[in-house]
Amino acid sequence: MLGVLVVVLVVLVVLVVLVVLVRGVLGVPGVLLMDLLSLHGRAGPCAARW
Questions:
Q1: 16 near 39, Cβ under 8 Å?
Q2: By three-state DSSP, how is residue 42 classified?
Q3: How far is the C-alpha of 34 from the C-alpha of 9, rounded, in Å?
Q4: 31, 23 contact by CB (below 8 A)
Q5: Tally of CB atoms within 10 A around 23
Q6: What confidence tens digit (pLDDT) does each residue in 1-50 have?
Q7: Per the confidence metrics, is the pTM higher than 0.70?
Q8: Cβ-Cβ contacts under 8 Å for 38 (sequence gap 6 or more)
Q9: Residues 31, 43 contacting (CB under 8 angstroms)
Q10: Residue among 11, 13, 19, 16 nearest 50 (CA)
């Protein structure tokens, strides 16, 4: 069970890093901040809106 939790955490961290890199490349720090503040299922609509 512990291994599964570690894998899930690693995947979440990788996704967050990818979002940060994409937002940084696009140069939209405001959207990045919104995504970080609303990672609980609301990051999708934020990304779709931009």
A1: yes
A2: coil
A3: 21
A4: yes
A5: 21
A6: 889 999 999 999 999 888 777 766 665 666 666 666 666 444 455 455 44
A7: no
A8: 46
A9: no
A10: 19
